[in-house]
Write a structure and sequence with these properties.
Layout: H1 7-29, H2 32-39, H3 43-49, H4 53-77, H5 84-92, H6 100-112, H7 117-141, H8 147-166, H9 174-189
Helix pairs in contact: 1-2, 1-4, 1-6, 4-7, 7-8, 8-9
Length: about 190
Amino acid sequence: MPRPSLKEERRNQILEAYEKCVARFGVEGASLELIAEEAGLARALIRHNVGNRKDLLAALVERFLEKSDHGTRMLLDTLPNENRLATLVEWLFDPRFMDPTLVLVSEALIATSSEHPEIAEKMRMWTEDFVSRVAKVIAREYPKAKKDKVRAVAAGLTAIYFNVDSMSPLGPMPALVKASKEAALILIESLES
């Protein structure tokens, strides 16, 4: 009986190492040598299991989008039936749910978007999708609010959250988190007028 292929296992190992390298060194600084060292594999195994640098980057983008989508779905699916929006704000600004590596990868992908229009498009779609998901939570709690105002509040809430999240690699910043959460709540309260 033939031995099962390790290709998928190796691929995940390589992409995890690539993710860590991109978080530390950016897309351009994450060399094949650094990835191989982080993965504990020979450099030739990277090409064999994932492909060239272009293939690696495409796989990283897909991995990031899948992880982010999974996390967002889990977050939204576990919101309670009552006070969904207040709970969402609590969770968005809770440092326990922030992932500095994922944040650094997203920032690196955004930074490299100017040279990679296909990545720029995917990152724009990722952002728009997040805003739309937040808008649905808001609309459910404020069904009489105008659609454009709900969208504006969702965009503002997302911007505040993304800003705080982008600071998470710096370590705990409780005053910024608290003030940002209050700003988000003030923005949401504007829907009552």
